[in-house]
């Protein structure tokens, strides 16, 4: 745990990436697996994760992210896109995966499936979209922690115009919405922010024991 906390103190929201350094395939696969293994409500994972390497595409996204240079300078750009709607097919697909993975009949999961459908499909469209958007933050957390272990920098961003990113990446036609973006790569030695002391609330101010 001491190593984990050390890495958490090492990480920061990188302001300037070294555009000459690229993440290895091995490390990228580790990050992908960390995202894949993230916790998700009911285990449904109602989102897609886009890993954008194409420099021209990233240049188109940059103005939609307030011109932030991390978009184009980082090794890769990750876009978390939540589903804007949830259907019975999504839940049925998950139950099929559970049955196949655990080698149990799908009929044994019918009660759980009905429970999920009753609680999820009855929600309003806005509520569904808001809920699936929150799920992407859980996946981002795993990305941040795994990247810190590998000494890979990540800049989690809400500073962008989702509607513009959706248009650039064709998300509207896919029933998706860009909820988070995260450039990943290696900090530039010119980024003075890496030397700033980490500012967080004290334990006394943050935690309340009842």
Question: What does the model show?
Answer:
- This is NAD(P)H-dependent oxidoreductase.
- Belongs to the nitroreductase family.
- Its cofactor is FMN.
- It comes from Flavobacterium alvei.
- Keywords: Flavoprotein, FMN, NADP, Oxidoreductase.
- This protein has 210 residues and is of the alpha+beta class.
- The chain folds into two domains: 2-85 and 125-189, NADH Oxidase (3-Layer(aba) Sandwich), CATH 3.40.109; 87-120, no CATH class.
- 47% of the residues lie in helices and 12% in strands.
- It has helices at 2-10, 25-36, 55-61, 70-73, 88-102, 110-120, 125-149, 162-169, 171-174, 203-206, and strands at 47-52, 76-83, 153-154, 176-185.
- It has a four-stranded antiparallel sheet, with helices on both faces.
- Helix 2 (25-36) packs across helix 7 (125-149) and helix 5 packs antiparallel against helix 6.
- The mean pLDDT is 97.
Determine the CATH topology of the largest domain. NADH Oxidase
Share in helix = 40-55%
How many domain modules?
2
The largest pleated sheet is described as: 4 strands, antiparallel
Strand arrangement, largest sheet?
A: 1-2-4-3
The whole-number mean of residue pLDDT values reads 97
β-strand amount: 5-15%
